[in-house]
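Internal ticket - ligand job 342, adenosine-5'-triphosphate:
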Amino acid sequence: MTDSRDITTGQTGPGCKKRDPILVAEKVTRQFGGMNAVDVDYLEVPRNKITALIGPNGAGKTTLFNLLTGFDTPNSGQWRFDDRDIAGVPSYKVARMGMVRTFQLTKVMGKLTVMENMRLGATAQPGESLARALFKGLWGKREKEITEQADVLLAKFKLDAKKDDYAASLSGGQRKLLEMARALMVKPVLVMLDEPMAGVNPALTQSLLDHIKNLKAEGMTVLFVEHDMHMVRHIADWVVVMAEGKIVAEGPPEIVMKDKAVIDAYLGAHHDVDLGDSKGVEMLEVELAQDEESVVGTPDAGILAHPGGSQPDGLHGESSRTGQTGPATTADTAPDSKETRP
Ligand SMILES: Nc1ncnc2c1ncn2[C@@H]1O[C@H](COP(=O)(O)OP(=O)(O)OP(=O)(O)O)[C@@H](O)[C@H]1O
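stdout (structure tokens):
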């Protein structure tokens, strides 16, 4: 049954309180050199909702994911998952507690089969207890149970026919599916997906979207980082916007996408362009046209959406540049193109 009650307890805005938060982060900071990659004052993630974490390149989204899931250490900060303090808890324990994540660049192990990758997921995150997972004698009676669970998930993700294939032979999109399926082996409560659509062929896009919606239907909470604004608008119940390490806006997608702070945050990536005159707008259009990851100004992005669908002069967007009328997607490049930083 859909829970249509308000997500917040009152006002909407950066750091606002949620009716039923599953994750609460306070004063989380991470510096690299002198730069504040993450400087989150307060953030609550609502339970059993799909929350999108958006923001321009370098906003700190992946770093925040890394911190919250124990893959990186903050300079300061506290966070609670399901009322348990988990700051400083290593990643494999965080996963066992029910909070799992996937990566921008999938971390499936190419030289292991699809099934072997799934077995690894049962113990923890990639790399955990490799020997235990692979050697039967050490594995004991859990093996049958784990294999059955993996079979069910592989069937659900339509990877069952490939279970004995090496993961390296899968397409970019199939690897994303495998990583998501593997994350579910620990029966998580909170699933964090870092750019689930990046590197996914359009043919698999709908399937991935459906899987994400199903996670919520099955009672899980989803927090995902995404640049594809079509996807954000399509499946997110709540949107959190980061820029320069901070949360600059949050709220329902249809409201956040029109928020001035959000528009500024995205245009901030092109701050060298003077928007004060029409020449500046033309220059911005050229910059955006060359920026493959930019969704600003596209009719699909929603960020610069104007009532009645009109665009400001000069901002014709990607669809008019390419003649494409369907949803904007960053997903039509097969190989993953960006390395996740440690
Ligand atoms: N290991 C690292 N060493 C130094 N700087 C880093 C490291 N990881 C991230 N950064 C920097 O921290 C900032 C935030 O990076 P992060 O990858 O978290 O941003 P992001 O919002 O996920 O960006 P994108 O959308 O491009 O993935 C960037 O300026 C980045 O260069």
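Auto-summary: The longest strand covers residues 21-32. Residues 124-128, 270-281, 293-342 have pLDDT under 50 and may be disordered.
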